[in-house]
Design a protein that fits this description.
It is a single chain. The protein has about 350 residues and is of the alpha/beta class. It is about 35% helix and about 15% strand. Strands 7, 8, 9, 10, 11 and 12 form a six-stranded mixed β-sheet that branches. A four-stranded parallel β-sheet has the order 4-3-5-6.
Length: about 350
């Protein structure tokens, strides 16, 4: 069973294998990097800054990241990072993507058609360093900090020494000094703008933020004061959306009162006894390939305790696809969709 705690990662790469792969790929990675850092006329291909904005230096989850020029060869890890680049029109920069959480939204299907997969789609395994470095990336864009360790794609310090820049979605920072508390749409829009800077695509980022701000402003939250449980995964112990992450942000925008809002975390374990006692009006079901919304419906209906919950008896369910539940370009649409589904439940 796969949980939704962002710190958890599964991988087939062993620490020793990862270290060996990093060492073996050092010459190759540095050679690939050097081809982009020689020359004198200031173009991205010859190593000079593409504009006055480069190099871009960032404090990213406490790591000093430096991007010398707009990345041309990018490995994305997690759906949120892949979809970010697709939404900005930068899909042609992706040389490999991995750890996808589900299919891209229909609006990005065409843009995603030619994006190569580093592993099978819908995998629950983060890529190892050897597979990543074989692609000679100049940037690895990760959805979770745990995607960048010696056991996964490589630790950030070692990758930097090889000339490979790294960037982690700021919403996933685990250090309390960097973790958004709570996450807001301004944080999501801030990542869009920062990625625009990293790629020298500020205009595209500004347009996307303006579009998303307009869509967010158009959402009319449900005004009934409905309480909700955000059920992400888990059987014996459910994992639910807690009070400071993307689930809380989406529920706030939709007008739902989260029964786990008092837990100061992004996701949390939540005993069934607590869920039954809270007796929410609505249950938000996260639909994932490894734990579908339909399977959750059946589980709730078959359990004698949860079967008596108001939301279960009335089948008051709202479904959200897993890739829309982490901070990214799908959050605004997810909030709007939740409102639409709530309206369909009747008044």
């Amino acid at each position: 069973m796969r949980t939704l705690i962002p710190a958890v990662v599964r991988t087939t790469a062993r620490p020793a294998a990862a270290a060996t792969a990093l060492a073996a790929a050092a010459v190759l990675a540095l050679a690939g990097c050097s081809s982009a850092t020689s020359g004198t006329d200031g173009s991205p291909d010859d190593g000079g800054p593409a504009s006055d904005t480069f190099p871009v230096r960032l404090d990213n989850c406490g790591f000093a990241a430096e991007i010398p020029a707009p990345p041309e060869r990018v490995v994305t890890i997690k759906s949120s990072t892949t979809e970010m680049l697709l939404a900005l029109g930068l899909g042609d920069r992706i040389v490999g993507t991995a750890f996808l959480d589900g299919p891209v939204p229909e609006s990005l299907t065409d843009a995603a058609a030619d994006v190569p997969a580093l592993a099978e789609p819908l995998t629950d395994e983060a890529p190892g360093s050897e597979a990543v470095l074989e692609l000679e990336p100049d940037l690895i864009y990760a959805g979770w900090e745990s995607n960048l360790t010696a056991e996964t794609a490589g630790d950030r310090e070692t990758l930097a020494a090889l000339g490979v820049a790294t960037y982690v979605s700021p919403a996933a920072c685990k250090d309390p000094a960097y973790m958004p508390n709570p996450l807001t749409f301004d944080h999501v829009f801030g990542e869009i703008e920062e990625i625009g800077r990293v790629f020298g695509a500020e205009d595209a980022a500004a347009d996307l933020v303006a579009e998303q701000r307009s869509a967010l402003a158009a959402i009319e939250p449900d005004d009934r004061g409905l309480t909700a449980l955000w059920y992400s995964s888990g059987d014996d112990v459910p994992y639910v959306g807690a009070g400071i992450g993307a689930p809380q942000m989406i529920m706030d925008a939709a007008g739902l009162e989260n029964v786990a809002a008092d837990v100061r975390d992004t996701w949390t374990s939540f005993a069934w006894e607590e869920a039954v006692a809270a007796d929410p009006d609505v249950i938000v079901l996260v639909d994932a390939a490894w734990n579908t919304a339909e399977a959750k419906r059946e589980r709730l209906a078959e359990n004698p305790a949860t079967a008596e919950m108001t939301a279960v008896r009335n089948e008051n369910y709202v479904v959200v696809p897993f890739p829309a539940t982490e901070a990214g370009v799908r959050n605004v649409d997810a909030a709007a969709d939740v409102v639409d589904q709530l309206g369909a439940l009747g008044r």
